[in-house]
Design a protein that fits this description.
This protein is of the alpha/beta class and 236 residues long. The chain has one domain: Rossmann fold (3-Layer(aba) Sandwich). The chain has ten helices and four strands; from the N terminus they run ααβαβααααβαβαα. The chain has helices at residues 6-13, 37-50, 63-74, 98-112, 117-120, 126-139, 152-167, 194-202, 218-221, 223-235; strands at residues 56-61, 79-85, 180-185, 207-211. It has a four-stranded parallel β-sheet, sandwiched between helices. α2 (37-50) packs across α3. It starts with 5 loop residues before the first helix and ends with a helix. The mean pLDDT is 97.
């Protein structure tokens, strides 16, 4: 929750009832963090049903996008519309290399005394650096009830799940027949942007939005454009 842009959460909440969840073993949720996307999707389906919802709209960012795809394929009647951001399909190009990409930039963050998201989520251009600073400032706005950071064990288990997703056989995304909006930056190094275009080709009727000079956090950098697009998509 506290790593997701409040401008997007608040913007969507202006028109919709928004529920943000911590996966098992993450943040305020108890238990042990799963090591597969399959487990996370099954947990989310069980939660949605336990809350009494017959149908929901889903927005998934990064790993959450993996989970959201799997939810739709497992329980297609449960989801009305799907928004996928900064994410990619099972077996997608470069997803299994997330550790090799992330670790050096996390170390760089430590050495430069900067939040690693500066390097992981944004481009190295002047525009990217400004966007990173503005995003990180927004993350500090919430003062009460902030999330606990994932334990090292939980972080490594999530990393294992991401790598496994990148190595598994592709899913039949043609089975997704609900409206889908896909958004990403044009320079995502964590989940390479080519995966967004791949999903858009494989999901019938999917809409694709690509932001220039933007990385993994493209929707955060461009929240002023993304939120109206998302609201319009959900209202259509």
């Amino acid at each position: 929750m506290d790593n997701f842009d409040p401008r997007i959460v608040d913007g969507l909440a202006s028109k919709h009832h928004v529920i943000a969840i911590d996966y098992r073993g993450i943040g305020a949720s108890g238990g042990t963090a799963p090591v597969t996307i399959d487990e996370m999707a099954r947990d989310a389906i069980a939660l949605i049903r336990a809350l009494g919802f017959k149908q929901v709209d889903l927005l998934g960012f990064s790993l959450g996008g993996f989970v959201a795809q799997d939810i739709v394929l497992k329980a297609p009647d449960l989801v009305r519309k799907l928004i996928l951001t900064g994410t990619g399909p099972a077996g997608g190009k470069g997803i299994e290399k997330v550790g090799a990409v992330s670790w050096p930039l996390m170390i760089k963050g430590l050495l430069t005394l900067r939040d690693p998201k500066t390097y992981l989520f944004f481009t190295s251009t002047a525009n990217g650096r400004r966007a990173a600073k503005a995003f990180l400032d927004r993350l500090k706005e919430r003062k009460a009830g902030r999330d606990k950071s994932p334990t090292p064990r939980a972080f490594l288990r999530q990393l294992k799940a991401i790598k496994a997703w990148g190595r598994q056989a592709p899913q039949n995304l043609g089975r997704i027949t609900i409206p889908v909006l896909i958004a990403n930056g044009d320079s995502d190094i964590m989940v390479p942007t080519v995966n967004s275009a791949d999903m858009a080709r494989r999901i019938p009727g999917a809409q694709l939005v690509t932001y220039n000079d933007a990385g993994h956090g493209g929707i955060f950098q461009n929240h002023a454009d993304f939120v109206p697009k998302a609201l319009s998509f959900l209202a259509a």
